[in-house]
Recover the amino acids of this structure.
């Protein structure tokens, strides 16, 4: 299907971009081609977020729901707000989503698709600052990118951010 005429090319869907540029993105399941952040909040557990609420005990229902709502306000809503303006994403994205197995590479691709290459670079720098353990995997990913198609990593592996930065020429 053709795009509507008023749609700008830089506003292309992530799924469309990944499909058209499959060699510039990691190996991912077909159902994840349009994913920007697929977190069900399980990824946020390291911040103490628990998105399951046991409602079987009536005396605990209220406190469990209050906790869930509070964590949603503190963690989930800021995440959605941070994607509202791609020009601010590198600064506003919650740290919980930027770990080595999180969604930083997806956010980098999102920024590139939106024409925000400088924000993509800044986001990579931020990840490496807050996740020092990511540096070794980052360098390994950049090395994999030099191997061409044979080095293309799978989604949510530690080397993805480095590979993505090299393939998209972001550093």
């Amino acid at each position: 299907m053709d795009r509507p005429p008023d749609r700008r090319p830089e506003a292309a869907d992530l799924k469309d971009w990944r499909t058209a540029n499959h060699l510039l993105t990691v190996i991912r399941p077909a159902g994840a081609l349009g994913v920007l952040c697929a977190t069900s909040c399980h990824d946020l557990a390291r911040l103490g977020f628990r998105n399951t609420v046991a409602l079987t005990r009536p005396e605990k229902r209220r406190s469990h729901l209050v906790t869930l709502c509070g964590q949603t306000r503190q963690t989930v809503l800021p995440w959605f707000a941070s994607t509202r303006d791609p020009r601010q994403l590198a600064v506003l994205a919650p740290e919980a989503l930027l770990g080595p197995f999180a969604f930083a590479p997806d956010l980098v691709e999102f920024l590139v698709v939106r024409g925000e290459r400088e924000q993509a670079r800044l986001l990579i720098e931020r990840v490496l600052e807050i996740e020092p353990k990511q540096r070794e995997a980052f360098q390994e990913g950049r090395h994999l990118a030099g191997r061409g198609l044979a080095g293309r990593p799978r989604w949510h592996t530690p080397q993805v951010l480095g590979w993505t930065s090299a393939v998209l020429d972001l550093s």
Q: What stands out?
A: The radius of gyration is 18 Å. Residues 128 and 135 are 6 Å apart (CA to CA). The first helix runs from residue 14 to 20.
